[in-house]
Amino acid sequence: MKKKTKLLIASLAVPFVLSTGEVSTFAQTFTSEQEVNIAQQEERLKLVGTVISSPANRPPSYEGMPGQLQSSDTIVLDSPPKGIYALKWVAPEGVTFDVYRGLTPFMDVPLFHNVTNGVKTDLASSPAFSPALKIANPEGATEDFEVKVYAVY
């Protein structure tokens, strides 16, 4: 990709004394417009998890425990690559869901909301990220559906 940019070629500042005795600076700047080739880094994807989700949340496995929302088994991310900065979610068109992480065996914490097919979720904005994730609150599904998780790096 070629991008036009202004490059600062030289800058010259020369102090001189005015007839009044004050010091002033005369400055001159030269600029040049040049085309610069900027190589775009190709986005890389690696499949790190797949899970089957129900079309509705399952009953909690531990009655009376808060935060037991899930419609899938736990997705344990398989060998995320070095430099991972986002997750890409692949699911059937028209299906929306939330992603929770297992804080403890008894409690899940929301991580991403309203995830749809092709959405990339930024890990930098998610300090509570965990490699053990669950699908919850699905909408738009009438039967079990598959969700694939790709590491973006």
Automatic annotation (TrEMBL):
Domain of life assignment: Bacteria
Keywords per UniProt: Signal
Keyword Signal: yes
Leader peptide range in chain numbering: 1-27
Protein name as annotated: DUF2141 domain-containing protein
Species, as recorded: Priestia endophytica
